[in-house]
Structures are given as C-alpha cells and as structure tokens.
C-alpha cells in the first residue's frame, strides 16, 4: 500500500495488487458485496454510483470490448470500462435474482457500500488498513490504468473527471521508477 498524508491529516491510499485481491476475496461468499468492490476497483465507480448499476448498464462496443454506463453519477451519465469478469458477475447476479431491466443489482445505501469496503479492508495486513476508503479504490483504479500506459485523457473520461490538475494531484501517483521509465522511453536519459 502506498500512502500519502493530506494536510487535513487523513491518508490517500493506493492498494497493491495483492491488497486488491485480498479485499475482493474477502467477499467470495457474498457476490453482491464482491461486485460492489470490483465496480470501484476495476471500473472506477464512486461509492454512490454502485447502487445505480443494472444488467442493462453493459454495452459491447464495435471494437468488442465492454463499457458500463453509469447513470446519475456525480456529474451525470458517463461510460467506463468493465472487465469481462465483472461483466459476467453482473449478469450472473441479475439472472440468479431474476432482475428485470433497470433493476439495480446492488440495491443498498451508499453508507452500506462504504461499510463493506471498511470490512474488506480489515483483511489487509497493513498498519493503515483502517484508512482505506471506497474512494481509495477508485484512486487505485485510475492510477493502475495510467501506469499501464493508458492515456490519462481516456482514464479521465471513463472516471468522469474534467480537471486534469485535480486528476493529477489527487488520483495519479507516479513513483520515481515510473518517471525514469518514461524518460527512458522518450530517450531523455
């Protein structure tokens, strides 16, 4: 886990791959809870957007990848990427529960989702595990995509950000090794 203390004394957290696995595996026996975490960790949803997802939120593009339409997000409707595993989990839960089009997959309050994140964070063996928030899962998603080489403009579009400065300052964390790698790619060092 990478930590950054803010001026107000709380921590921004970026979860390692192992910690992400530990949190999602914490809910192996509870598919809805696991899906809520996956939507934040692997699609960048805000905690308040998780209850807005239904089985008809998934769209396959002409290029054969899936997008998730997030309705009533913080700034309106947007689309974000969705992994095949998360897509399949949405469909499985919807079919198992015999949900109709438009019925929310995870029909709980925002606070409930936040509690699920806190409970799953307890499975992480780290002294700051209790500092992990739902927002840190979104932060981890954005940083992982940028670090993987996806252009920040695409990540910002998927995540619903329009201010590059805010995105860079609060979500995108670069290590010295990553900066050095980019400098080498640009043939500067």
TrEMBL record:
Residues 10-184 form the Tyr recombinase domain. Gene3D superfamilies: Intergrase catalytic core. PROSITE patterns: TYR_RECOMBINASE. This is Site-specific integrase. Signal peptide: none annotated. Coiled coil: none annotated. Keywords: DNA recombination. InterPro entries: DNA_brk_join_enz, Integrase-like_cat_sf, Integrase_catalytic. CDD domains: DNA_BRE_C (cd00397).
């Amino acid at each position: 886990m990478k930590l950054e203390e803010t001026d107000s004394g709380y921590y921004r957290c970026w979860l390692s791959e192992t910690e992400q696995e530990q949190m999602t595996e914490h809910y192996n026996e509870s598919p809805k809870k696991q899906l809520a975490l996956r939507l934040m960790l692997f699609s960048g949803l805000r905690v308040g957007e998780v209850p807005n997802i239904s089985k008809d939120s998934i769209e396959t593009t002409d290029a054969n990848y899936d997008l998730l339409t997030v309705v009533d997000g913080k700034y309106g409707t947007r689309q974000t990427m969705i992994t095949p595993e998360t897509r399949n989990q949405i469909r499985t839960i919807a079919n198992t529960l015999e949900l109709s089009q438009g019925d929310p997959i995870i029909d709980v309050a925002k606070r409930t989702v936040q509690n699920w994140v806190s409970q799953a964070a307890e499975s992480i063996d780290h002294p700051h595990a209790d500092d992990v928030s739902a927002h840190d899962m979104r932060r981890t998603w954005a940083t992982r995509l940028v670090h993987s080489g996806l252009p920040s403009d695409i990540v910002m579009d998927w995540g619903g950000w329009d201010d590059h400065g805010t995105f860079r300052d609060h979500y995108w964390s670069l290590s010295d090794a990553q900066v050095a790698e980019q400098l080498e790619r640009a043939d500067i060092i």
